[in-house]
Amino acid sequence: VNTFSGATLDRAAHRRTDAGWLAAALADPASRALVTTPEGVPITGDRRDPRPATTPLADALADSGRAPAEAILLGVGGDDAALFLIDAVPRAGTRGADGAQAGARITNLRDVAARLSPGDAGLLAYAQALAAWQRTHRFCGICGTATVPEEAGHTRRCPRDGSTHHPRTDPVVIAIVTNGDRVMLGRQPGWPRGRYSALAGFVEPGESLEDAVAREIAEEAGVQIGSITYHSSQPWPFPGSLMIGFLAEHAGGEPRPLDAELEDVRWFDRAQVTAATAEDGWTDGDGGPGLLLPPSIAVARRLIETWLS
Ligand SMILES: [Zn+2]
Known about the structure:
Layout lengths: L18 H9 L4 E5 L4 E4 L6 E2 L2 E2 H8 L7 E5 L5 E6 L17 E3 L1 H4 L5 H19 L11 E3 L4 E3 L6 E2 L4 E10 L2 E6 L11 E4 L6 H13 L2 E13 L4 E12 L11 E6 H9 L20 H10 L1
Parallel strand pairs: 1-6, 11-15
Antiparallel strand pairs: 1-4, 2-3, 2-7, 5-6, 8-9, 9-10, 11-12, 11-13, 12-16, 14-15
The chain binds zinc ion.
């Protein structure tokens, strides 16, 4: 399972429009809340065993100053208690409602992702992506009027023109190009020394995933591809992407960086990649650039390991 792909929470989507059930859940002392801020997600537990921190919903509402209508229903836990998301915006000069009352600390999700259980990582990815969308879609894109939450926070409606605005997910294709015992990887300026990874790019309007893979690889590396194979997908809530992973067969062209996005793009052979995997990081090629594989939480790493095996 890719990191962030293992959410197990029952999203209880049918409850989002059940006004009676929602009112009861908002008043139920057993209901809990995850309190996010633009700085991250609430984490408790020690560094080696981090877990999402939840607080009683009533406390989260009181501390954040949010109205109950602004609580977003994430779902229903194994204990049948409703779990809500409260996005707290720290007020100037205060710490804001950062969940600290529960012994939690607001943490960058990237920093703890590798140590979370699959279910917890999936839950926090879900919460962080939804919170980021709420934060940036407070006004109607048509007329500029402030929108109001509906469907327990999963849509927003414009009270002036009646338009409905849905949470946004941005599809990103990510692919490695293979040619027998060689794999093509690229590096971006600013990455750690030796880091090479799969090529990635946003899917454009009116474009299929297949066409997006071929276009990105041609644009960035000057390489043509033949058949592509879908591997897996991964929510990537930074802030709202869905990574869609592929393996693509090389069909022509020698890799060279063609746009500013890539600093280098080149072939690595199986022995080089195997050595980088075994050492879980840097290996000096024979006079080559060395190779530091992408981190284990990235679907790019899974694509490379799939090719190796
Ligand atoms: Zn409007």
